[in-house]
Amino acid sequence: MCRCILTGLGNRGRYWHDQLKGRDDVEVVAYVDPSAPMRHRAIAELGIAESSLFDHFDKALAAVAADFVLDVTPPSVHEQIAARTFDAGLHLLSEKPLSDDYQAAVRIVEAGRRAGRKHMIAQNYRFNAPVRTLRKLLDQKIVGTVGQCDVQFYKAWADAPGTHYVTEPYMVIKDMMIHHFDLIRYLLGVDPLWVQAITWNHPWGWHRGDAAHAIVFGFPDRVMATHVTVACSVGDSHHDYFGAWRLDGSDGSITMGNQRLRHVHLARTDEPIDNEMAPAEPAGDIVTEFLAAIDADCDPECCAADNLKSVAMVFAAIQSAEQQQKVLLEEIKGP
Q1: Residue 260 in contact with residue 128, Cβ under 8 Å?
Q2: Distance between CA 230 and CA 224 in Å, rounded?
Q3: Is the dihedral of CA 56, 57, 61, 67 positive or negative?
Q4: pLDDT tens, 69-84?
Q5: Between β-strands 224-230 and 146-154, what pairing exists: parallel, antiparallel or unpaired?
Q6: Which of 190, 180, 187 is CA-nearest to residue 136?
Q7: What one-character DSSP code corresponds to residue 261?
């Protein structure tokens, strides 16, 4: 049984509370939130004992024995939580993004390495059943050699006035696109070399930062990936938050959307294919992956060091948009 300190009791923290309470391999021994209303809400709605609630992370660390921390605080706080967690000799499972500042993300990764602790980022999109199935099919060369990956995302994203998603710049890329950029790396099995991004706003949009973009990533062997977004779309939005995916290769294309997969090979083939498939691989489990890595003393999938490469894609895209030019990923990557 692994003992956990859960820090952050907002909506995502409440989600994690519900995920953990039914497990027989994790016990949450302390909950942390600086907001008194949040703590009172946790008592009233989640049935958490007042004795298990703390208004400061350091108080929880001093009061209980734990094995790992689940960090569900805002990204700007992640470095502080990580430093205290590793100083206490604990492992860390953290919500994405790793940080809202690239150099802070680099420091967080280095702190975990120095401490010799396991540090995993909860990139939950990777653990989706269609995504797992698609990755296996691509590994089996269902479309031959992949040459292009195209992603489209049209949503009325973060449609709530006054939140940091609306008021801060580039939040669509920083908060939402980390999911998609990480999946591009995961599905292609390789890291990008460069990025060129154009971002803009539409007159009817509600975001202060740019909410639409066209981004191109260049990979080795002339593999290309594009990402097109209108996050202030008030029109057709029939895809889920995974967006619409298409990967083209030498033996056809495969698409993913709304939890379905479709393989098509019509031209230059003696055996035309147009086959819709249900996901065949089971969904993964983030906590199980994390605990298994602790037991086996190995890096979990989505370890912080690997996730830093996805974070680099985010900040390189932003730099490209600001400078209006192509940016090499090696220019943004840290040590």
Answers
A1: no
A2: 20
A3: positive
A4: 999 999 999 999 999 9
A5: parallel
A6: 187
A7: E
Strand order across the beta sheet in which 260-265 lies: 273-277, 260-265, 252-257, 244-249, 146-154, 224-230, 212-218, 194-200, 327-328
Tokens matching residue 131: 């995504």
For the entire predicted model, the pTM comes to: 0.96
What would the pLDDT profile of 14-23 be if each residue is shown by its tens digit?
999 999 998 9
Burial class, 78, CB count within 10 angstroms (exposed 0-12 / middle 13-18 / buried 19+): buried
How is the chain split into domains, by residue range? 2-125+285-303, 129-281+315-332
The answer to whether 99 and 110 are in contact (CB under 8 A) is no
* Cβ-contact 7, 70 below 8 angstroms: yes
- Sorting pLDDT into bands at 50, 70 and 90, what band is 67? very high
In whole angstroms, give the CA distance from residue 296 to residue 7. 25
Backbone angles phi, psi at 294, to 5 degrees: -65, -45
Please enumerate, as own/partner, the contacts of 311-314 that have beta carbons within 8 Å and a separation of 24 or more. 311/97, 311/98, 311/99, 311/102, 311/105, 311/178, 312/102, 313/181, 313/184, 313/185, 313/192, 313/195, 313/217, 314/97, 314/173, 314/174, 314/177, 314/178, 314/181
Bridge-partner residues for 244, per DSSP? 152
Class of domain 2-125+285-303: alpha beta
Q: Do domains 2-125+285-303 and 129-281+315-332 have the same CATH topology?
A: no
Residue 293 has pLDDT above 80, yes or no: yes
In DSSP terms, which residues pair with 28 in a beta bridge? 4
Question: Which CATH number describes the domain made up of 129-281+315-332?
Answer: 3.30.360.10
Beta strands in 237-281 (DSSP E): 244-249, 252-257, 260-265, 273-277
Other beta carbons less than 10 A from residue 253's beta carbon: 18
Q: Are 20 and 84 in contact (CB under 8 A)?
A: no
Cα 203 from Cα 193, distance rounded (Å): 33
**How many Cβ atoms from other residues are within 10 Å of residue 273's Cβ?**
14
pLDDT score recorded for residue 120? 98
Give the amino acid at 28: V
